[in-house]
Amino acid sequence: MRFMSLIRSEEPNPAGPPPPELFEAVGELAQDLSVSGALVDMGGLLPSSAGAIVSLVDGRISAVDGPFTEAKELIGGYAVLEVRSREEAVELSRRLLRAHQRHWPGWQGSCELRQIEDADHPHPDLPRA
């Protein structure tokens, strides 16, 4: 099973920028998860000022450059996990949040887990061939 883990927090973060110790701890966690085969990919995202939102509304496509001031929380990082169960994905996400808790005092956020659809795990509302 594959899961996408999305780290959400406020932007700008009231706790300030991420400290170097957090990068070290997340790097060590990534190494551990890579060795075990659980980590497919992981990365942090730049602030929304470096991005854009492209939307389709009422038949019109538009693009708005960041920063996204109307958003309370934004995705600040992601990981793609290859695991045996949803419970394992939850535990790995807890480990990532514990690293934030230990190395970035005052940081608050969440980790959204979403299972990735594939041939073995199709969308439940779509007809099967």
Automatic annotation (TrEMBL):
Signal peptide coordinates: none
InterPro entries: Dimeric_a/b-barrel, YCII
Domain YCII-related: 21-95
One Pfam family, short name: YCII
Coiled-coil regions listed: none
Domain of life: Bacteria
Family listed: Belongs to the YciI family.
Protein name in the entry: Uncharacterized conserved protein
Lineage of the organism: Bacteria, Bacillati, Actinomycetota, Actinomycetes, Jiangellales
